[in-house]
Write a structure and sequence with these properties.
Chain lengths: ~200, ~400
Amino acid sequence: MLQAGEWAYSEKLKEHFMNPKNILQGENTDEFDGVGMEGNLQCGDQMMVVIKVDKEKEVITDCQWKTYGCASAIASTSILSEMVKGRTLDDAFNISPKEVAQELGGLPDHKIHCSVLGDKALRAAINDYYTRNGKEDKVKQEQAKVICQCMNITDHDIEDAVLEGARTYFELQERTKLGTVCGQCKGEAELLLEKFKHIHFGV
Amino acid sequence: MADMKVYFDHNATTPLHPEVKKEMIAAMEMFGNPSSMHSYGREARANVENARRQVADFIGASEKEIVFVGSGSEANNTVLSLFVCGSSQCIPGSRMRSSIITTKIEHPCVLETSECLGHRGVRIKYLDVDQYGKIDLDQLAGMLGDDVGLVSVMMANNEIGTLQDIETIAKMVHESGALMHTDAVQAIGKVPVDVRTLGVDFLTMSAHKIYGPKGVGALFVKKGVPYCPLIRGGHQELGRRAGTENTLGILGLGKAVEMRALEMPEEEERLLELKQVLKNGIEESIDDVHFNGHPTDSLTSTLNVSFIGVEGEAILLYLDIEGIAVSTGSACASGSLDPSHVLLATGVDAELAHGSIRFSMGRESSRQEVDYLLDVLPRTIQKIRNMSTAYIKGGLHAASR
């Protein structure tokens, strides 16, 4: 007979869940140079990332966080806060959820969406830093682009659907109702589907 | 790793009762097919029929009214699926009335089957529940009518423990000419269940929730009510459920109800006391909690609590590390993105549902275990709140947008 199975999570994730690093204590963020918050409580995940920046080198010197969420959300923000220290803002801005998941030793498919908020919050914090320091020109907005005009579905919605498990065009339609009226967006949606599958799951 | 192990997830499943285990081990050699006429078969048949008598006695039914099935889910599927059968070949007399009434807090095996029947032309009406998880009898009265063939209301809710007044509901249902089903999987063995007193036509029970084995349950089908099997092609169970009987499982179920009859009366009081200690302890040691379910009309073993600003899966896993097993209504633990449909139906908002934990105690639960939990829980919640965006000392964080 087999003994109790492993956690659904990797040992690395478990370690970060049990002993999270760099938790922001209290709620005062005055001493930080950039603050970003993503997600909401109703959906069960919310992350706040705060950074200190070496203004000459534009390098992140400290990163702390708070997270409302499950084990993988907590662990992914914890490991992200370790990953970004010493990185340039440009470099940190490009950290993808896939990198975070890899660093954690992989995440179960249905948990990938819990790890995408950390890097989003980090980008928000970096943008906040740029705004505060009069460098609005460097702020990179993550503008959503409407793909399906009929149902008002954006590329972000498609990305979310992929993260939540959609792998085929049909599953994408089931989740988003995209392309269920005129159907003209099918080609573009399929390309994005493939793109996000590749980005997040390497398939 | 924790030295102490506390299993507070009895509503999910229970360990085998030692007496059940003993009986099943002793019966391991029994392999005959109850349908065979030789001695092997007769031995198996005798044990299956003995269990049928035990189960019938336990719920005040007659033996022929008990159909052994593979699970509570199968029993519930069977009852609901009866109602798409419009053939007078299967159900003599007229076509069945084609609407079903159920509640928003049923187990998914009822809700998803209902939804599927909806696709097949059956009209499904869902009863709301109040903040405690009770259905509104006036709403039921308004829904009942000539079109309604079946009403299915669970006796005790698995997540919040709220008990429904099945006896009154069944009376109303019968007055309107419909049939009454109750999913009593969580109620059986915890509160007295007598099918005649309740006045139900169908009742579902499962063995593994009452210290019996998994993979076996029983469906009470009142004599004379229309019936159509879900699994066809065999004469077993008087043609009501095909497939060679799970003899060992059935024997285990029989012993399990026998043990319940002996232990239940004393246990109810003891668990009620433990639940009170647990509830008071949580109230005293943790701020910003919300108790879900009915304050009194509830299973004595079940306590459902929402911790504001904390996500349930995180609580569950931190408690697991400390050797304590519980469950949560959070979406994260379920694999879906929505939190508990039961809590949402009671009007609890999504955030509180994500932060809900169900403690369900059982026959072996002790004061020592509750004390240990009360030692671990406050610091666990404190630890999570300390890193939560949703909670800053003294209350909810205002920064959320």
